[in-house]
Backbone:
């Protein structure tokens, strides 16, 4: 299926690794022009070098119109602005840099996130740990979305996808800050979708279950060099590339009627009844 992303101007946060890195690659492969941001400047530079080495050329900065010259054969990732999504001024600067470099903005994909304490009972959870998780997962998504609204309005509308989690809908013990923060991200997407619909801006969220990323491997004690990964785990895990495909779908014109939605990708686990049958 043609996702009709060629020439669309995309900003991906948290692009240094995991889902964000996969998203940057996926949007570029679909022909979008991508700006990336993360607090890890070296990793961002490595990402751009990787894509250039793979032959991903810089694509057009806007959708083609009648009379335009033919578009480049693919999209590109070439605009890097390191930023900490919890810092208002840095987010504002990163979004402004992306808008200036791309000639506008059509899509925002907020991938920056942290898991925080894993296996820590609520009674033992430090206030600082709670705040750190909410700062990145919720405040970060809010700051990015707020900063991007004027550019999306100027483009006549656009698409925003926030990375939430199935933990926004179900819970596991020892992860209260993470679960609560992802529920907040999901409701941020819904509330923003209702408010921004009049501007032609859609806001949706993806809610994946466990994704094979360096962060989840660290949380669950699986080494980065362990080729078996989650294969022996008593539950399924998806890849970052699979989540990236979900992000592309929600950000694309193909999903135009979808707004304020949570795309839950958890292999059907949240649909399963506990009835012993």
Residues:
């Amino acid at each position: 299926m043609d996702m009709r992303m060629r020439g669309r101007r995309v900003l991906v946060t948290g692009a240094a690794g995991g889902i964000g890195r996969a998203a940057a690659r996926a949007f570029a492969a679909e022909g979008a022009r991508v700006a990336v941001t993360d607090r890890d400047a070296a990793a961002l530079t490595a990402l751009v070098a990787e894509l250039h080495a793979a032959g991903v050329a810089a694509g057009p900065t806007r959708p083609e119109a009648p009379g335009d010259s033919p578009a480049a054969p693919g999209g590109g990732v070439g605009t890097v602005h390191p930023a900490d999504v919890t810092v208002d001024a840095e987010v504002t600067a990163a979004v402004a840099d992306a808008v200036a470099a791309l000639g506008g903005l059509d899509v925002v994909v907020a991938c920056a996130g942290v898991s925080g304490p894993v296996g820590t009972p609520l009674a033992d959870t430090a206030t600082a740990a709670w705040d750190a998780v909410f700062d990145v997962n919720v405040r970060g998504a809010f700051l990015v979305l707020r900063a991007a609204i004027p550019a999306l309005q100027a483009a006549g509308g656009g698409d925003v996808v926030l990375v939430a989690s199935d933990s926004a809908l179900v819970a596991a013990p020892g992860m209260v800050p993470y679960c609560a923060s992802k529920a907040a991200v999901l409701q941020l997407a819904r509330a923003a979708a209702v408010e921004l619909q009049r501007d032609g801006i859609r806001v949706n969220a993806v809610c994946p279950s466990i994704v094979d990323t360096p962060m989840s491997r660290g949380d669950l004690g699986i080494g980065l060099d362990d080729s078996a990964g989650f294969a022996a785990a008593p539950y399924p895990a998806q890849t970052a590339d699979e989540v990236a495909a979900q992000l592309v779908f929600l950000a694309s014109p193909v999903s135009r009627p979808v707004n304020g939605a949570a795309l839950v990708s958890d292999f059907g686990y949240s649909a399963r009844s506990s009835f012993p049958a």
Observations:
- Residues 116 and 129 are 7 Å apart (CA to CA).
- The longest strand covers residues 201-208.
